[in-house]
Amino acid sequence: MRTLFSLVFILSMLLAGAQKFDGLAPTPPMGWNSWNKFSCDVTESLIRETADAMVASGMKEAGYEYIVIDDCWHGERDSLGFIQPDPVRFPSGMKALADYVHSKGLKFGIYSDAGWQTCGGRPGSRGREYQDAQRYASWGVDYLKYDWCNTEGLKAEGAYLTMRNALYEAGRPIVLSICEWGDNQPWEWAGPIGHLWRTTGDIYNCFDCEYDHGTWSSWGVLQILDMRKDIRKYAGPDHWNDPDMMEIGNGMSVNEDRAHFSLWAMMAAPLIAGNDLRNMSPETISILTNKEVIAIDQDSLGIQAFKHIDEENFEVWVKPLAGGDLAVCFLNRSAEPFELNFDWKSNPMKDPDFDFAFNFTENTYDLLNVWSGKKQGTTMKALKATIPGHDVLMFKLFGE
Ligand code: GLA
User: Structure pTM?
Assistant: First the structure.
């Protein structure tokens, strides 16, 4: 009886000790993920070349850090149940690949699923969480994207908690990226569990469309922007709303890509590129590495933008920044040009969730156009400009 009591006591202490690895994502994670461009077509050479390209393109220098292999890297479990990579696609094994990524000064991410199988039909982690977490830690994994296919009978909060505890016990700090598409309101419970959580279904490579797969849909940039309106108050340092990986460089127009990147930065979204880094146009590189826009995303306050003006084709988004500064993004949702005539003084901006207010009658701000890189006057004068179709004008405002 005494032994049983001690056992129960030790077990409960161990369980009580499990937690999330705190402090791994003080600002939204930045990196690359294979899924949007390559879907199941992942190999170790792709990952090595992508790590090389992240350095050579200047993306690492701009802040991108994680190289994440999404679905379909898996082979079979070994006789003891440990997961192995596909021996044809990853002949050198995951440890060697992680070492290579680390040798470039980058971090290494991998993908699994809380159910029996991943969305791509590979072995999932259900019932194997502690074993998988041990294996990932031994390979040198730094980031786990954990999906939600084939999870019949499971409760999301409990399933993600199990993997969180498994990772903690394995002992290697690993960012936990929760991917259950916002179906179970993760913003309400995932703060102590993961570092980021998907808020929507999958993104689709278009600016304004819904792609119907039959039983589910994937969504364009504007559709994702419009979903989950009232959850900005749940995000912040180490616990981010994730509107999905980016489609920049995958075929949208330069205007659309610029708007997409701007909006993700305004939302303090994780900036996970989803294109082929080995073959990028100069425009794609310059969008993905725009320092001012990245700084707005990565601002230390970690506050998502609120919508100040919401008209059919025209929106104004406002993101409070550290030090009393702010970012303002004028979005033209239509395909036609929009004539902007914006009087700052008659537009006091009040944050509906946090204690921020910007009043341009009382205070004057200098304007930095973050896409042209040029100073553009102050808030004393009305702002007049033409915004091309499916594009933005975006400013950082500095208090004088
Ligand atoms: C789900 C996720 C995607 C991707 C695929 C892989 O759809 O939401 O981001 O990981 O699975 O199969």
Answer: 0.96
Catalytic residue (one of 71, 142, 147, 325): 147
Per-residue pLDDT at 17: 80
How much is the average pLDDT of 92-104?
Answer: 98
Q: What is the predicted pLDDT for the residue at 11?
A: 54
Question: CB of 124 within 8 A of CB of 144?
Answer: no
Q: What is the spatial distance between Cα 222 and Cα 390, in angstroms, rounded to a whole number?
A: 10
Pairing of strands 349-350, 357-358: antiparallel
Average pLDDT over residues 77-94: 98
Ligand 1, pocket residues at CB < 6 Å: 35, 70-71, 118-120, 147, 179, 202
What was the pLDDT predicted at 88? 98
Q: Is 79 helix (H, G, I), strand (E, B) or coil?
A: coil
The DSSP bridge partners found for residue 320 are: 326
- 70 an active-site residue? no
Q: Residue holding tokens 């009886």? A: 1
Residue 175 CB burial class (10 angstroms; 0-12, 13-18, ≥19): buried
The amino acid present at 95, given as its one-letter code, is K
